[in-house]
Specification:
It is built from 13 helices and 12 strands. It is α+β, with helices and mostly antiparallel strands and 471 residues long.
């Protein structure tokens, strides 16, 4: 339970002026201050996140305690000058730097840092101190998530955790536009966190949050530049690539004719030369030709899929919506995979909502999205008694349509969940192109929908897509 704490009678040490307000008052000041800054900083404008925050911060802090003002100014100055922090490439390393610094200055009983996934639904532990034998991070997960949802710091006085009393501070890792996670710091015994310690944690969390924002912005710019380069390269080569693919397709068709798959049903009794009975050597040649044909077809399909995926992802396009049946589209995709499902002995479980008639979608895009998800499910159940579930359902108010593809395959490791929609990232190793799920996410966004992923290693994965039903 959150409680007020006694007034601080000591000065704040190296900070310019003493702070004499209650500790809980400091938290309230910070929360109020962040709300003011959030209202004043321009929204959704590239490149002004840091500058807008700094100028607004310095202006707002004039009316707050001079000690906190000095501390924030110093931390922000360090932020601008710190080359080490600017060179860090991921948020886990950044929050570890923050946690180690807090541990060095505060000597706390525990520090837990939680980070949110890109979907803002997953919430995983990024830093833990001390060992799990000494402190269980699950004990503070709930208050960490509450802090993340509200985006506000909270101080708890004498909170009982694992049979021990702690003074606990939760501080959000957030900027004026985004939220990344929570840092939770606890001090054992009757000694409460003082104003200087609270200021240190909150200021550090703020600085690191904007560094995380910068990292994400830079990574986004780099990724976009790469995609533009890919798009330009593919566009320049597309004519030649299509000619190569057309030649391969023609060659495959000729081999099919030669093997009698199209118009020679009696080939099993005749040699390829049509003059002799099938000798053992001719039979061996025929088998080699058959295997070669399969290999060429497989390579052709992979090359075609890769090229089309690169063009698809790197090119912005407007979807062409019309009324169509999602149930029919999903069923058609599954029907196209029926032979492969039979060969691999994968059981298909279908559950379609008959109330869903026609909704406004781009049929070709939805078909591609479902196809990619089904392909992933087939790959995931390799080596198991595979089961794939597919279905659709209306939401309670029929405002959107839900569709899902679920498998009982190998699952996705927790550390990879946040990256599966990144282009070029694949959990299939050399077999994956890294475009499949990136395109799935792109198509979902094109339709104004959302996608949720739930996965457990060695138990399976479920993709749930929600798309507005339209009118």
């Amino acid at each position: 339970m959150q409680k007020s704490v006694r007034k601080i009678r000591k000065t704040v040490g190296t900070i310019v002026k003493p702070v004499v307000k209650p500790v809980s008052g400091l938290v309230d000041i910070f929360n109020s201050f962040m709300r003011k800054v959030e209202e004043k900083v321009p929204a959704k404008k590239e490149g002004v996140e840091i500058d807008g925050f700094v100028s607004t911060l310095l202006d707002e802090m004039k009316d707050v305690e001079q000690g906190i003002f000095a501390f924030f100014s110093e931390m922000l100055f360090m932020h601008h000058l710190s080359e080490k922090m600017a060179q860090v490439e991921n948020e886990v390393t950044l929050v570890s730097i923050l946690a180690e610094r807090v541990k060095e200055f505060l000597k706390p009983g525990f520090i837990e840092v939680f980070l949110s996934g890109e979907d803002k639904h997953s919430f995983h532990l990024a830093y833990h101190y001390p060992s799990e034998k000494e402190f269980n991070p699950a004990a503070v997960r709930e208050i960490a998530m509450e802090c993340f949802r509200k985006g506000e710091s909270t101080i708890f006085n004498s909170k009982k955790i694992g049979g021990k009393n702690f003074s606990v501070l939760t501080a959000p890792l957030r900027t004026t536009r985004d939220r990344f996670g929570t840092i939770v710091v606890g001090k054992k015994g009757k000694n409460n966190l003082n104003s200087r310690e609270i200021t240190l944690v909150i200021a550090g969390a703020t600085v690191v949050s904007f560094s995380i924002s910068n990292i994400k912005l830079v990574n986004s710019i780099i990724k976009n530049e790469r995609l533009v380069t890919i798009g330009e390269t593919i566009a320049g080569l597309s004519h030649d690539i299509k000619n190569i693919l057309t030649s391969l397709e023609s060659g495959i068709a000729i081999m099919d004719i030669a093997m009698g798959k199209n118009n020679r049903p009696g080939l099993k009794e005749k040699c390829l030369c049509r003059k002799c009975s099938l000798s053992s050597s001719c039979m061996e040649d025929f088998k080699m030709l058959t295997e070669g044909s399969r290999a060429v077809k497989k390579g052709y399909e992979r090359m075609k899929d890769l090229v089309l995926s690169m063009i698809d992802y790197s090119r912005e396009r407007e979807i062409s919506v019309r009324k169509a049946s999602i149930n029919r589209l999903v069923k058609d995709v599954l029907a196209g995979k029926s032979e492969e499902l039979r060969e691999k002995k994968i059981r298909l479980v279908e559950e379609f909502d008959g109330r869903i008639k026609e909704v406004l979608i781009d049929p070709s895009r939805i078909e591609r999205m479902v196809g990619n998800l089904v392909n992933n499910a087939i790959d995931a159940v390799k080596g198991k008694a595979g089961v794939i579930k597919a279905g659709t359902r209306f939401s309670a108010d029929r405002s959107y349509v839900m569709m899902w593809i679920e498998d009982n395959g190998r699952g996705i490791p927790e550390g990879s969940i946040n990256r599966i929609f990144d282009v070029f990232y694949s959990t299939k190793g050399a077999k994956g192109t890294g475009f499949g799920l990136a395109i799935v996410q792109k198509i979902v966004r094109e339709h104004g929908g959302t996608i949720e992923v739930k996965s457990t290693v060695n138990k399976g994965t479920r993709f749930l897509i929600k798309i507005p039903a339209g009118k």
